[in-house]
Design a protein that fits this description.
Distance between the termini: 45 Å
Oligomer: single chain
Low-confidence stretches: 1-15
CATH topology of the largest domain: Rossmann fold
Structural class: alpha/beta
Number of strands: 14
Largest sheet: 5 strands, parallel
Shape: globular
Strand order of the largest sheet: 6-5-7-8-9
Strand content: 15-25%
CATH architecture of the largest domain: 3-Layer(aba) Sandwich
Helix content: 40-55%
Number of domains: 2
Radius of gyration: 22 Å
CATH superfamily of the largest domain: ANL, N-terminal domain
Mean pLDDT: 81
CATH class of the largest domain: Alpha Beta
Order of helices and strands: EEHEEHEHEHEHEEHEEHHHHEHEHHHEH
Amino acid sequence: MDRALTGAPTDRSAHAVGLHEWFARRAGRVPTQPALSCDAVCWTYGELQQRVEAMSAVLAAGGVAAGDRVGYLGLNDPMFVVVMFATSRLGGVFVPLNFRLSGPELAYVIGDAGIHTLVAGEEHLAVIDGVRGTLACQRFIHRAGGAPGWEPADALMAQAATPPDAVPATADAVAVIMYTSGTTGHPKGAMLTHGNFWANNLNEMLLWDMVSTDVTLNFAPMFHVGGLLCGSLSTLLVVDIDLVGSFHVLRQAHAHLRKPGASVISITAPQSFVPMRYQAHACAAKAGVDQLTRVLALEWGGEGVRINSISPGPIDGTEDFRKLMAPSAAERASAQDAVPLKRFGSLDDIANLALFLASPYAGYISGAVIPCDGGGAVESVKPALEAAGASL
């Protein structure tokens, strides 16, 4: 039992913010209302909740408990949502995986996240099987009928025992770990809390004037926060990891930065000011980080805090560069020739700029978004970025 502002005892379920909690409340109120459609699948809230409970029983039977990480690798599919809510119901942490990564790249993320159970779609079983020997996952589940070495989710859910009691979530508990693309090195896991999701949902509902009869068409990949947070979850309840994550990190860090000489440096991207086809989610998120930099420079300047952003172009030696750069020497040379400085950037270029911005030599610079792109190098990889977006 919690206490409201009046001090009177209240029923916690009335205002719980956990991912699984608010969805279960919604399903209990409107069990026959359509919740989700994909291809030939159309589930009501009640039907979706039944599958969530069945999957939570399956995961629990395999040893998943509070704090354990469950990964999902696959194209947009109703099972993505089922596994996410089922993981949350057990107090676990959901880890959506980028289905465009190679085997070694996925192995790194899976190991870094410490994934206990991995659920995957048929299109991605082979890439996991290729690196399976390097993974520490305790269980591998195919999202549907199974495959050699993969347990079948359909059969497991059909035979599932009574689901265990749901684990209450606190607003500060981690709900989802979403990985960055690795612009300046390995991908990094951003830990989003149940409170983050709840606040984002409320903001979208108020901003877009959403009502219970609204329908959202999601075409963005759900492993990306643009596909998961920007409309999808808020629709089920009635901005992007870059922007939402940056906002909450800066908000929590503010109390420790309130002293003269403090400096904050954000990493953004040229998509914030170079429009690209099929990259609306990335362009909007990066532009939001840039504007956050400028606004906080105004608000925090009086406390002696400087805040700036670095916008890297194609930086050799990073995950993004390896994924986007054409493999042939001729195509690489052509892309490099399109850079005004006739070379790609290096990790040292970014590090040296960051050192300068953090030093006293930049003591009068704040609110700046500084390109580090060789004079507009993003144009050399813009076709690759647009082609990647078009393939989704």
